[in-house]
Amino acid sequence: MEHTRQPLTEGQAIDLFVAYRFLRILTTPWEKQEAFKLGIIDKDGKLLRRRNTLKTAEERKSFTLLHRLVFNL
User: Fold this and answer.
1) Quick check: helix, strand or coil at residue 17?
2) Whole-number Å distance between alpha carbons of 11 and 41
3) What angle do CA 48, 64, 56 make, to 5 degrees?
4) CA-CA distance, 11 to 65, in Å (whole number)?
5) What are the beta bridge partners of residue 47?
6) C-beta neighbour count of 46 within 10 angstroms
7) pTM of the model
8) pLDDT (tens digit, 9 = 90+) per residue, 17-33?
9) 11 exposed, middle or buried (CB, 10 Å; 0-12, 13-18, 19+)?
10) What SS3 class is residue 64?
């Protein structure tokens, strides 16, 4: 049986990217998270500011739904 390498489909590429982002966020120390630098989480990963209190685009970008999911793990 001959095995040929198949290119990634669009769905597989998206899954791979999300998995990479998930693991990247999960393994980054709290002090190096952008949300920590902006005062959204503390050094233990506890939430200091709720999502609806974030004003700037930079704050919202540093604490997305994916970040919330990973931080709650």
Assistant:
1) helix
2) 32
3) 70
4) 20
5) 41
6) 9
7) 0.71
8) 999 999 998 999 989 98
9) exposed
10) coil
